[in-house]
Amino acid sequence: MITALAGGVGAARLLRGLVLCLPSAEVTAIVNTGDDTVLHGLLICPDLDTVTYTLAKMNDDERGWGLAGESWAAMEALERLGGEAWFRLGDRDLATHLYRTQRLSEGALLSEITREITHALGVGARLLPMSDDPVRTRLTLVDGPEIGFQEYFVRRQHSVAVSSVRFEEADRSTAGPGVIEAITDADAVIICPSNPVVSIGPLLAVPGIADALKKRRHEVIAVSPIIAGAALKGPADRLMTELGQEASVVGVARAYTELAGTLVIDDADAALSNDVEATGMRCLVTSTVMRTVDDAERLCRTMLAAVPGVNIAKAQPR
Ligand code: FO1
Predict the structure, then answer these.
(1) How confident is the model at residue 314 (pLDDT cuts 50, 70, 90)?
(2) From the CA of 8, how far away is ligand 1's center (Å)?
(3) How remote is the CA of residue 49 from the centroid of ligand 1, in Å?
(4) Which residue has the higher pLDDT, 100 or 233?
(5) Does residue 312 sit within a domain?
(6) Total domain count for the chain?
(7) What is the DSSP letter of 219?
(8) Is 15 helix (H, G, I), strand (E, B) or coil?
(9) Ligand 1 center–CA 75 separation, angstroms
(10) Residue nearest to atom 12 of ligand 1 (CA)
């Protein structure tokens, strides 16, 4: 079994390739829920939904989130009423939030509901919320207020400087069912190319997850989300700089070196591979930009070949 620690878009892209390298039932993704938010009385889980929709091949790859072929009638009707419409919820995407919220009101756990949704959408991989307890990423802006993640990321288009980030209730949360075992029992663990601060950070703040990774460090391989000093998408580089970390593959290596034995960096950063290895991580240089599913599959095969003791025998029929 291969376990991946996943945030949103970058992780979803990689997972699309990973399920072509081995039977999808042998792929487990531990997914960030720090981005989750309640709007219109509905619990919305963006990273779980982005990974689910992508593996179900229903995602809108262009937009990076939500469903392909979406309509927005409900949002337009809500706007006419003067309701909140800054966080765009497509008509079909709404069904996911309605179903999830109804099941929560019936006492179901987020992990159970995630299993129901992935099963209903034909996703073979196992998606595990990092915790069934609510953990919320909160960001304090340089000019003062503390705001929620979606307020930062969407409403303010992450165009504001951040002075600190915290993961509310993380210290009181419990790792979700199967999460720790998915790390301890995996043949290899992949830290996906997600934002180290606000996508991987919340996962590491859930008690037990970081320790479980440290115990498997040699079989943990991370992919840098930073290429030539920048993030392909989103605020990872700016957040790292604002929080005093170096927005480079070396900065990523420093963040991960206790948890992962290997860092995968893009060819564009080949000149920094010695600096990465100086942090104590092995460095694997390859093309890490995933424009197509073939790119993602190739990256996954390269990575798994580099982890000692992992043999990907069965190729998943395409
Ligand atoms: N991102 C945006 O930039 N604008 C949106 O209106 C928006 C709506 C949205 C609805 C559902 C969902 O699952 C994701 C959505 N996202 C939107 C993306 C979301 O903010 C990010 O996927 C994560 O929270 C960061 O990875």
Answers:
(1) very low
(2) 9
(3) 10
(4) 100
(5) no
(6) 1
(7) G
(8) helix
(9) 14
(10) 46
